[in-house]
Each structure stands twice: as C-alpha cells, then as structure tokens.
Amino acid sequence: MEKEELKIVNKDEEDEMELQGYRVCRWRVAVVSLGVLCTGGFLLLLLYWMPEWCVKATCTRTTVREAEVVLLQSTDDFKRWFLAKVRVMLAPGRNPFDTQIKKVSALVIFANILISFSLQIRYFTLHSTKYYWNDEVHNFEVLTRLFFGVNEIAVKVPSVFKLLIKEVLNPFYIFQLFSVILWSADEYYYYAAAIVFMSVISIATSLYTIKKQYVTLHDMVSAHSIVRVSVCRANIEEALSTDLVPGDVMVIPSNGTIMPCDAVLISGTCIVNESMLTGESVPVTKTNLPNPGEGDKEGDAAYSMEEHKRHTLFCGTHVIQTRFYSGELVKAVVVRTGFSTAKGQLVRSILYPKPTDFKLYRDAYLFLLCLVAIAGIGFVYSIVLSIMNNVPAKTIIIESLDIITITVPPALPAAMTAGIVYAQRRLKRIGIFCISPQRINICGQLNLVCFDKTGTLTEDGLDLWGVQRVEKGTFHLSEENAYKDTLVKSQFVACMATCHSLTNIDGKLSGDPLDLKMFEATGWILEEATEEETSLHNRIMPTVVRPPKQLMPPEPVMSPEQDMELYDLSAYEIGIVRQFPFSSALQRMCVVARLLGEKRMDAYLKGAPEVVASLCKKDTVPEDFAEVLEDYTKQGFRVIALAHRRLESKLTWHKVQNVNRDQMEANMEFLGLIIMQNKLKAETSGVLQDLRRAHIRTVMVTGDNMLTAISVARDCGMIPPQDQVIIADALPPKDGQAAKITWRYADNPTSHCVRLYLDPQDQYHFAMSGKSFAVITEHFQDLLQKLVLHGTVFARMAPDQKTELIEALQSVDYFVGMCGDGANDCGALKRAHGGISLSELEASVASPFTSRTPNISCVPSLIREGRAALITSFCVFKFMALYSIIQYISVTLLYSILSNLGDFQFLFIDIAIILLVVFTMSLNPAWKELVSRRPPSGLISGPLLFSVLTQILICLGFQTIAFLWVRHQAWYHIWTPQSDACNSSLRANLGPEHNSSEERDDHNIKNYENTSLFYVSSFQYLIVAIVFSKGKPFRQPSYKNWPFVVSCIGLYIFMFFIMFYPVSAIDEFLEIVCVPFEWRITLFFIIIVNAAVSVLVETLVLDVVLWKLVFSRDKQGGYGTTHGGIDLWGAKCLSWLCCRRRKVPKARYMHLAQELSVDPDWPPKPTTTTEAKHPLPGNPPENGSSYQIMADS
User: Fold this and answer.
1) What is the set of active-site residues?
2) For 170-183, what is the mean pLDDT?
3) I need a surface site. Which of 313, 390, 1069, 1104 has the fewest CB within 10 A?
4) What gap in Å lies between CA 1110 and CA 992, rounded to an integer?
5) Where in the numbering of this chain does the P5B-type ATPase N-terminal domain appear (predicted)?
6) Residue 542's pLDDT is what?
7) Cα–Cα distance measured from residue 668 to residue 683, given in angstroms and rounded to the nearest whole number
8) For 572-601, how does the pLDDT look when each residue is reduced to its tens digit (9 = 90+)?
C-alpha cells in the first residue's frame, strides 16, 4: 500500500498531533479474531489498552486521503496514542471548500440533487472536535467556518453500564480477576471472596465519583446553554440558542443574559462579569467593534479573538447590563459556537486533561516491572522444583502462577491514592480547594514560586497617597488629595471623574479597584440613565458625573443679570460620550466627554506614565518628568498619569462614535500624576522569608511599573538589601541594526561589579520589562535561560508573557509554582506545576488550586502538604513492595518443602495487617514548617533504593534463619496430626481438632516451618511499616498519628498473645500448629533482633550517615547554597565507597549555575551592551552563541 510522510494536525498548538492513515485489512482482522479466541479474549484486551497495536495489527498503511482509520500520536512528552474512524458526510450541491463563491442557479442545484450528485466530505471526531479533510492543504483540519453543528457544549453523562465496562477493563482489575480465578482453582475461596468484595466496593466508589463529576460538569455547562435569543435574520425573531451559527446577529437584552456563544459587539456597550473564565469578579466594560474607516488600523484589520478581546462577549460570561443610544438595540455577531467557544475549550480541557508528568509515576511503573521480573524468577523456580518432586501438572500451573499474584500487590493503586485523598482533605480544612489531586504530590517538589504583585503580595485596594498636577510644563508641589473646591472645575479633576469604567449595579458603584479609589477621591457623583430615559431622548448620554453641592463655590446674592450664570453653575455636569476601555497591551484607557452646555468635546487619557507622556505634546511634559517618576516608583508607589485634549468643534456625537482611538489619543496635554500607595499584605514578608529559608526561589511577575516592582521586591524581602539589581533593557532590531540589550543598575550606578564577583550566585538579580522579555525571547534564545536563572522581577508583563516565563523556567528543570489573584494569570496558573489562585470564586477553573485565604500564606501550606503527600507515597510504595517481597520469600521457602501459606493466613495478613496499616500510615499530617531539604522526586534514587534493598535483605535473612533453624531443633520432625511437640495438656486440648484435619494431604499447610514463617513474617510487616513511616522533616512523627499507633499496638498485642498463649480456635482458624515454648522464645528474639537491625539501618545508616554525607549533595537551592557542618572528608570516602563519582548535576539550572560561576563575562557589566548576531547561512556563531558583548563607547 502507498505510504506518505506523517501529517500534523493542530500545528504549533497545545494539542498538536502526528497523523497516519490506515485501511482495514480483512485477512489481518481474521487472524486477530482467531488469536482472540485462542487467548480467551486476552488479546482483545491488550489491543483495547494499546490502540497503536490494534490499528497496526488489523490495518495496512495507506494515504491519509484514502484512510478508513486514522492513528494519531501527541507530539508532547507523553506520546499518547489515539485512534479514530473516518466517516463520510454527503453534501449535495456546490463544493463547500471552494474559496471563490460562484453564482449557481437554483435549476443547476436542483438538477445536481436529482442526479444524486453528492460531494463526499470525509471527517473524524476526536475529543469533541471534528476534523475535516481539506483537498487544498491535503490534510485534516478543524473547519468550524464551514460546518458549525448545534451550538451546544454537550457533556454526555455515560450510562452506569458503560462506565462499569470501562472501569472493569482497567489492567488492574483484569489482573485481580485473573488472581481470583487462580485462587479459587487452588481452593482459597475465602481469600478470593474477600478480594472480590473489596474490588466491588472500590469499583462502586470509583463509579459513583466519576458519575458525580460528569453530572456536576453537565449541570454546570447545561444550566444556561439552551436559552431563547432574539436574532436579526430577515426580521428580529426568537430562536433557540442551539440554532445559532457564526454570522448570526443576536440582540443582547437590556436586563442582561448569560452568553450562549462567543460574539463580538457591533453596537452599544455591555457590562460583563467574566469571573467564569478569569476568576476576577470585577465587571468589565465591553465596547462595540470600531467601524472600518480611513486610516483606522483596528477597524480594517481582520477580526482576531485575542486582539479584539475588549469587544468580545465570551460564552458563559454574565452580561449584567447593556447601554445603548437613542433606542438603538445592542447587537453582537456570533463568531464561535459549541466547543469552539472559550467556555467550550475550557470544558474540553476538563473532559480530556493532559496526564500528569511526574518522575514518581514513571518510576512506579519501573518498580512494578522489577517486581514482575522477581515474580518471573519465582515462577521458573516453582516449576523446576515441582517437576523435580513429581508434582501433578495442574498443581504446578496453579502454584507457579500463584507466585505472580503474590509478587505484584493488587491493593497498590488504592493504597497510593489514600495519601493524596487525605492530603486533599487537610488542604480543604485550611481553605485550599483542589481540582487536580495528582498535582498535590508535584507541589512537594516546588523549588521556585512566581507571584503576581497587586492583590497577591500587596493589598488589592490602592490608597490615594497624593496628586501632583502640571501647569505650563512644570510640576506643582504634591497635594494630599483633589477634594478641593479650588480644583472642582479643573481638567485634572474632570479627568479623574470621567476616565474610568465604573458602573452602577443595584445602586452600588462597581468596577476596577483603582478606578474606584480614584473616583472616590474626587467626591463626585456618578449617574446613569435608566432604560425609560434612554428611550425618550434622541441623544442621551449614558453616564453623567457631577460634583456634590458642597464642593461648588457658595451661591452669591441673586440678581437678574446673574440668574443665567447661577443656573449654569448649579448644573455643572460632564457626560461621558464614548469610552475606549483599558487595554493591558496599550497600558491606557481613554474617554470622550462633554461638559453640559459646551459644544466642543474633551478627550481624557489615563494610563502608565511612560505611555501617556509619549502621547502628549513635548512642551506640556515637564523636563524633570523622568526624575519625579523614578523618585515615586523607587519608593514603591503606583503612579498613574493623566492627559487631556480639547477636541475640534467639527467632531459631532455621531462622528465620535466612529472615530479611531489612535486619532483621539494624539497631541494630548499632560495634566499630572496620581500617586497610589499599594501596601504590602501583613503576611507577605514572613511567608517570603520562610520560602527563602527553605531555599525556594521567589520571582515577581507583574503588570506594574518596573521600579515600583523592584521597590516592592526589596520591601518584602524578595531582594535582600545588600543584593544588586541589574536591569536588562532590550531593543528590537531597527533600521538595519541588530537587536541589543543594554545593562544598567537599578539603584546606584557608581557601585561597580567588584562585589558582584565575590559570590556571583547570590549577589545579583535581573529585572526586565515585558517588552524586553519579548525581544530576548525572540532574538536571544540562548541568553534567556541564563537570565531566568537570576531573574527576580518581571514587570509590565502581558498575560501570555507570564505563561512564556513559566515555560522558560520549566525548560531549565525548575518545579514552578504560580500564585496569582486569578486576573490575567489564568494561563500561567494552568501551565505551572502548582498554580494557586487567591480568587474567592470557585470559578477559577484554570487553576489546579484555589485558596479562600486572600494572602500568600497558602503557598508554604500547599508545599508542606505536597511534601507530606509525596513522602507518604514513597512510604506506602516501599511498604507495599516489601509486603509483596516478604510474602514472596515466605511462599518461596515453603514451596521448597511443597507447602504454602493457608487461606486464612493470607486473609489475616492481607486484610487485618496490610489494609489496616497501609490506610492508617498515610494519615500523618504535614510537618509544621518548611525545611531547606526537598524530598526525592522519584523512586529510583539512592536513598530509596538503599532503603528497600537493605530491608529486603534483612527480611530474607531472618526468614531464612527461622526456616532453617526450626529444622535443626531437637524436637523437630515432619509434622503429622499425631505430632507431640508441645506439653501433654496442650496436646490434649489441640489433639481432636488436629486429628480431624485432612488438609495436609492436599496442601501440606500445617507444619512447623509454616507456623514459624507465619509468626516471623507477620511481625516483619509491622516492623517495616513502622520503619518506613517517616516523620520529621516532612511529616509529623508517627506517634502523633493515633489511628496508626493504635493499629500497630493492637496487632502487636494480638500476635504476641497467639504466639505465647495459643487458643485452639484461633490456631485452627489460622492453620498454625503448636510449637514448644522454648522455640517461641527463640522466635521472639529473632523478631526483636530483626526489628533492631531494621530500625538501625533505616534511621542511623540511611538517615544520618548516608543521606547527610552522600545523598544530600543534590540540593534544590537556586543559588548554590553551602551546607556547613558536614564532614567533607567523610563525604568523599562514602561517595567513593558507594561508587558515586563527581558528575554534572541532573537539573539544567544547576548545570547552568556551575557554568556561569566560572564565566568571567557574567553577569554583564553595566558598561556593556549585548548585541544579537546575524550569522551567515551555514556559518554558525562562535561557541554556539547568538550574541556578543561589547563595551559602550
């Protein structure tokens, strides 16, 4: 069959996949069907688990165009496989893929239908998205512009039967089914029944949880998905929202609605609550899309969801109210429907989440493979031994397969999940809610946390510190506030009163906190026209602001000639005619307003000082503007600049509605500065200090001014007082010159680099703006990783740049946490290993964690719980591995005498000991403080392997000693029901029961070796549980975990009781035999020595000696911290003994830190400029570097 190169779908997107085409091959299907019959259906299960095997086994490769089945593989690190069936849709008439629309008569179309001419459109569906074959690009594409479908985000709730089949076909349950069948064949009915009972409970619980999640998501999505809407087609008509298609013009009702699709406003204004998507409860003003006009760049450009976000109403967001003019309806054009909408994509990410990539889970599979390999050895051993002893074939098969079921613990997944579930409950108790429980373990590895500034490190609300007005190009002295009668009619106050996006909702002012503080400082009153008023006037101004009467000058004595003037004075009002909302990309907002009685209008501008100054006439900006601004920002103030422009009289109300924003925001007059104080939250400094002590790096990512951000970083302790801050100012290529970075100190330019080289890893920090970050990302890729290694302040960052920064930090192997208030941080919160939103709304679905505590004290709490959960996972995994190995050793030793453990012995060990212990040992709470040491990230690490291997050897040694020693006792002989190893009185009590036993004929369960190994192994399970249940420094000590302590003490008492004081009923139940009292004392000493050796090796050798001297070398600190008090000579000796040679650190950031510590040109000196190189094709830059450092002239 013809093959072709791999096709790529969703290129350069998050869900990019490689695609291959296949055609079903009948003879291959027949061969596979035969194989399924021969293997009793196991091959079918295998093909169900492995979709790539299924396709390759039953199909032959063909071109994608002719494919009947497509096989897709994700291009990310997980390399997941998906298969989809290609379907055919018949579309009569014109080819919908034709780019040029041709006029076709109705007669021709009718004729085409009559002759059954149908175009075959091929498509497949994957993850609720349809991909259609496009002949123009010779590939499958998401062509929503052609085939819209029903406007509905359909979350189908699967039937219980379907969920049951999917759950039962899990490899874990299939293995359990195999085990149960095997145990039943070996007459272990009680044990098999107990496992079936537990599996049924586990499956029922899992089904209930999954079903509940589906129902919750379905209810959340469908609550407002089907509503009646008014659509402008031939006339305005009522229609169901499910019938909406892109291109429809829908009418937004004046009393608000919940948007059933993504639509762009073409007339009117809307106040929208977007908390469902962003987590921010502050209402947002959406304005209509600008009309295309001459020189109007925004109007002429093609519509883009990202660029025109402030004109777009997103699906699922709540339109609180609308504003319109002269009876005109507020209309919006539908642009996306169904799963293509912003809400649809959000639901899709919940329905089809990416798997969590964490070393622990990869290592767990490797560990299980090792257990399978050990089981294989036992399998071969049992077959050889049975053949040598002429054991029947049926018994050989059952007992050899039994070894495999013993070695691989069936309760492992449930045991591993328990620790995470307990951690999730503890987090919930302290107000942290989690929607991705697997992330809790990953949070235990966090070694860098990014923080948003406003609302996260600092108070959400800003306080007005003062204003500094400008007149005739010079600054006045700063004033405490603008609430003065002398300023009431000034343009400065008018700008403060009008340039905002506030609105009245239920009689209360609502909007951005900064706007709210600024408007409240004026003392003015805001009034909005009602719906009735709007319908009565031809030109109604939707919002009017006016000063209170007490601010107006006192009324003079009235005279006829003054009557008109007083009327004007008392009616001093400003109406807001048009609003250009704040844009984080433009860093400014603008309004057009008109004073009542005035013919000419005014434009008022507010925004970042640097941006506003660049839009003003140069003669109106004070010469010392930069110095004054720097002085304020260094003190940590947030500074907003104001500007004004008197508009031409020819600009009428209608013209203003269509004018371009760029035209309005030119040639402004600089009015002055508003200085806002953003206080640190009380908890901020203490939390950052705790993180620094724990060697966890902290980074600030903010949309605020850089110098303000640096000042806040110093105030909160993120940048220590003695450390230097280097600002990287990057400029893009211009006029044929290459991109370049200039380096300068943020504080004192006279202090040179001498002290920077004393400890280059801990004495300097980089700071840069969003613009510089964009240039560096594009033109200095190999420099970016070096900068993020010491980058501490990233200012003026756009939302997508925050996400890029998280990715850059992850690229150098940092485990990155992100803490934000939900506004503009959604992408970064989702991308980080552990994103925690401080928004009080549960709607921050983008973030894995949401805190009800509105400060960053939740961050160390989350890391502590993550570390505790991670250590719990290690403890449980180690314990379950040892449980399997201990039981494997017991069974293997007993197989040598053709014996085994009894049915009720297995039952007692697995139910009474293992389940009780494993579900209580996970209950240890987190340690009360963060320590500088991090837990290992995977199971395949020195300390853990050493711990497991030594405990295996100890258990093997002591079981072998007990097994061999009992056979060398003077009283020992092959046990029979008539055996007399105990005293006569005890024999009299036990004799009848033993005489009635015929079990020995079939399984040879009752013997002295079995009894001895049962006692020793039962105590070994408890010993390793206690030894592995670690406390400090990541978890509370085990003695504080009272369920675990009670369980262990209870089991110890019971085991010692039945060992020293045999009870015939218990002995008969557990199938153990009576042994002399002297041998019980000997077993007691074996158990005591076993416990002592296990504790000594685990606590003294591993925790004290090896961990501190050998394994502690791989630390997590971002700044290469030194650890005093460690015996370096001892460390070298033990490293040599353990064959640990000096090697390059695994973490990329540590490797970079080593390289930079010996680089004489790093960090760059303030007197240098770094310029991007433009190497010729085929001539790579020297040393692989794409930049060169030059001294400034």
Assistant:
1) 452
2) 80
3) 390
4) 60
5) 13-134
6) 64
7) 42
8) 788 888 888 777 667 788 888 888 878 888
Give the length of the chain: 1193
| Both structure tokens of 992 | 């009848």
Mean pLDDT of 195-205: 79
For 1170, residues 6+ apart whose C-beta sits below 8 A from its C-beta are: 740, 741, 743, 780, 783, 1164, 1187, 1188, 1189, 1190
Closest to 441 (Cα-Cα) out of 461, 423, 462: 423
Output the DSSP codes for 912-959: IIIIHHHHHGGGPPBPSS--S----SSSSSHHHHHHHHHHHHHHHHHH
Q: Within 13 Å of residue 504, how many CA atoms lie on the same side as its CB? A: 12
In terms of C-beta density within 10 A (0-12 exposed, 13-18 middle, 19 or more buried), how is residue 281 classed?
Answer: middle
Q: Answer with the residue of higher pLDDT: 569 or 395.
A: 395
pLDDT for 907-927, tens place per residue?
A: 888 888 888 888 888 888 888
| Omega before 413 within 30 of 0, i.e. cis | no
Nearest to 785 by CA among 317, 391, 271, 1149: 1149
Local structure of residue 17 (DSSP, 8 states): E
Cα–Cα distance measured from residue 270 to residue 284, given in angstroms and rounded to the nearest whole number = 8
Residue 988: band (very low, low, confident or very high) from pLDDT cuts 50, 70, 90: very low
According to the 3-state scheme, what is the secondary structure of 1044-1073? HHHHHHHHHHHHHHHHHCCCHHHHHHHCCC
The H helix count followed by the E strand count for the chain is 41, 42
For residue 72, give every residue at least 6 positions away whose Cβ sits within 8 Å of its Cβ, in sequence order, or none.
9, 17, 18, 19, 20, 81, 82, 83, 84, 126
- Angstrom distance (rounded) from CA 811 to CA 803: 12
Note whether 211 and 159 are within 8 A (CB). no
Phi and psi torsions of 1081, nearest 5°:
-60, -40
Phi/psi at 151 (5° precision): -80, 85
Distance CA 1115, CA 1120 (A): 8
Cβ 132 vs Cβ 357: under 8 Å:
no
Report the C-alpha gap between 780 and 743 in whole angstroms: 14
Candidate from 238-242, 437-441, 993-997 with smallest mean pLDDT: 993-997
Cβ atoms of 763 and 831 within 8 Å: the answer is: no
What b/e sequence results for 792-809 when a residue is b if at least 16 CB atoms lie within 10 Å of its CB, and e otherwise? Answer: bbbbbbbbebbbbbbebb
